[in-house]
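Q: How do we represent a protein-ligand complex in a form that can be generated token by token?
A: Start from the inputs.
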Amino acid sequence: MSADVVIRGVRAVFEDGVRPLDICIEGPRISSIHAAGQAPGGAREIGGHGLTALPGLIDMHSHHREPGFTHKEDIVTIGAQCAAGGVTVSVGMPNVSPPPTTAAILDEMLALYRSRSLVDYNVNPSPVQLAELPKMAERGVLAFKIFMVVDTGRSYPHMPGIGLHEHGKLYTMFKAVKATELPLMVHPHDQSLMDAIEHEFWARGERDFRAYARAYATDDGVIWDTAVAVLLRLQEATDVRLHLLHTQTWRVVEMLRTAKAAGRAVSAEVNPWCFWLGNDWANIERLGSYALSYYVAPHHAAAVYEGFRQGVVDIMATDHAPHLREEKEPGWADGWTADTGTPSEQFYLSLLLTDVAAGKLTLESGVEATTRAPAKLFGLYPRKGTIAVGSDADIILVDTERRHVITDADVLSRCGWTPYAGREVRGVPVYTLLRGELIYTEGKVTAREGFGRQATPLRP
Ligand SMILES: [Zn+2]
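Then emit the structure tokens for the protein with zinc ion bound:
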């Protein structure tokens, strides 16, 4: 029987290396894999010669902005960036309006995605209403997400109601999440320390983008380290599956290493801005708030990179956080009034492949951290995150040699700009397939609204 789609002569990336193969797809799944040149004919043939096949990227942390902030982004514009950037599963964060804190609100949000998403999706709801957690878990979510941040001087992106930083409340919530057996994502932060640090800056009259960048990095990252120390101790007390967001200090990497060596249920992500944006003060001088996310001093970024190469930092997720220019512009004078965060969904694969081309990272470990590792941590493996017979045919074909200079004109996000403009990357997606359908071909997004499906965890 002939396959629906045959990808011929592609270099496919596996955990243990890269091999030339033909990949056959029937319906939504990979039906067979053959030595190059050995596959039978298919109804549709894709010439993979000179291209490299990777599993579709799984982005566990992306700010899709809908509902509530669709002037920045919406489910369709994020989907187009995913298709163009090789992302086949993108998971939204809860700082939308209304935030998903109940099963009823979550249902409405999932219905929006069902009708309009271009790519496979899920939502990480906020676990602040403990009685709602079992019901939300039944909706097939992959994880819960909590911010320890409560914004000062602005009500976004860390709006009141989904921030939680008191230890007693965290302890109770950890136990409630543990009862669902789902992972808990936490944005680590120490609000009390941050209040003290901010007041020192403000008392000196320092409020510009530089002050904002330095405040979060004060005392070699003390707000991050103290928060993570508390979170890890609460994890030990409750045995919740803790997933730390925004890894960005060397001490956090060492704490993670120790916790993992002890066999604890702990994992962590790093974001593109930690390696390619906020790690260089020159970017912050040049771009101001447009480069913030956070400033990560080079010695921290190097330690996190080393931890990433070793798998101590398990995954890369984008923390894609688009804002309009007019929401960033006030940050030159007052960093605290600019919305914080940077967009990256469309370009992080190319940034990663550029590091692979430069020999900083193996292709296998880059692919692991963006596909298989998140699939395993969040219950999607082996349906997603791998090129294997029976898995969803979520496959991206990349040209690892092709060079491209990123420009604002490339940007498919509603925000209309990227902090990576002007950068030459080496390695770009050429085709993106989601469940056997081409959703991106050579610069053109062909994904359909409503094609995306909720990527739910596999039950044992
Ligand atoms: Zn985020």
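The CA atoms of residues 190 and 226 lie 7 Å apart. The two ends are 32 Å apart (CA to CA).
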